[in-house]
Amino acid sequence: GAVVSQHPSRVICKSGTSVKIECRSLDFQATTMFWYRQFPKQSLMLMATSNEGSKATYEQGVEKDKFLINHASLTLSTLTVTSAHPEDSSFYICSARGSEGYNEQFFGPGTRLTVL
Amino acid sequence: QKEVEQDPGPLSVPEGAIVSLNCTYSNSAFQYFMWYRQYSRKGPELLMYTYSSGNKEDGRFTAQVDKSSKYISLFIRDSQPSDSATYLCAIKGAQKLVFGQGTRLTINP
Questions:
Q1: How far is CA B48 from CA A56, B19, B55, in A?
Q2: Which of B:35-94 have CB within 8 Å of A?
Q3: Looking at beta carbons, which residues of chain A come within 8 Å of B97?
Q4: I want to staple B48 with a disulfide (CB 3.0 to 4.6 A). Which of B3, B33, B35, B98 is the partner?
């Protein structure tokens, strides 16, 4: 299957700082990327969907000014958590979908964010 | 009512047992059905993907879809300790995947 990477895998930061997470599709062009959030022992909650070159579409209740998403190329999307607070601590997972496999999404390994 | 319902478990079975994991969904417009496996602190991995009613087999795994009942299942035969993980059903609507809560499965040697 297709490979999606995320960096960093784990980040610890102080409250009030901003954190950027990168998501890359390594062997295919990702026309659409998705960002999810997962709390312990809970399922994945979709935060936003982004298409290359377009503004991201955020799910209801997700603050777009707090979670900045950029999908500038067909292989890279970034999620920036601005002015992070302890309640933003979570497991963030990206997913990518190519134009050919429209119904298949491939997930990255996730980034664990801890805000102190 | 949630769009996708999945028993969170936990489910614990002995090695070699047949495991049955299930989900129900509410929207008959859903057309594509997936099962993902997620190990602890890792991203989900696509296991099975189907779009029609009936069975689809891949090695020890069988995915079953019953659209009339809005019910999907994943069967694992000859379960192994390495199958211990959280299994998530996911159903695709018009644009996005909707995930079940996930079932934590432990296979005991």
A1: 28, 15, 11
A2: 36, 41-46, 49, 51, 88, 92
A3: 34, 46, 105
A4: B35
Task: Write the single-letter amino acid at A33.
Answer: M
Q: Does A103 sit within 8 Å of B99, measured CB to CB?
A: no
Question: Which tens digit of pLDDT belongs to each residue from B46-72?
Answer: 999 888 888 999 999 999 999 999 999
> Concatenated DSSP letters for A57-85?
EEPTT--TTTEEEEEEETTEEEEEE-S--
Provide the pLDDT confidence category of residue A53 given band limits of 50, 70 and 90.
confident
CA-closest candidate to residue B30, choices B101, B86, B103, B99: B99
pLDDT of residue A42: 84
pLDDT (0 to 100) of residue A103: 66
